[in-house]
Amino acid sequence: MMLGKLFDYTVVRFAIIGVVNTIFAYFLGVLLYLWLVDNLDAYLISTLSGFISIGFSLMLQRKFVFLSKGSLKGDLFRGFIVYGALVLFAALIFKVLIDIAKVNIFLSQAITLAQSWIFSYFLLNKFAFPDRYIGDD
Predict the structure, then answer these.
(1) Does pTM top 0.85 for this prediction?
(2) Which residues lie closer than 8 Å to 64 by C-beta, 6 or more apart?
(3) Which residues, 6+ apart, have CB-to-CB distance to 11 below 8 Å?
(4) Measured at the alpha carbon of residue 85, what is the angle toward residues 117 and 119, in degrees to the nearest 5?
(5) Banded model confidence at residue 13, pLDDT cuts 50, 70, 90
(6) φ, ψ for residue 121 (rounded to 5)?
């Protein structure tokens, strides 16, 4: 398979944009913390960083992954619902793994992130960006 053809697959674009989003979110969180630490609680800084990162992620996914033709406002609204549900579900999975199943932190975090990645792909694909260009995959 030629490398250019590989980018025709939504899941490959999703993984690449996921790496970009992760790098962006990491540096945004650090920069906001360094900038705002004297004026805001770390929880608020993290929340602000999270919302900005999710918005950035949704914009990239909308344009480069799912090639959405729907309304921007509708896509973002549905995307924030998806991510909100994913965060709550991931927190529950994490708590069960750590507190009930007594799985170590490293494996718990890996499992939580893996399930989040899988569910986010399918939920964004089917729910957040329903009016998308079909023709790949």
Answers:
(1) no
(2) 13, 17
(3) 121, 137
(4) 25
(5) very high
(6) -60, -50
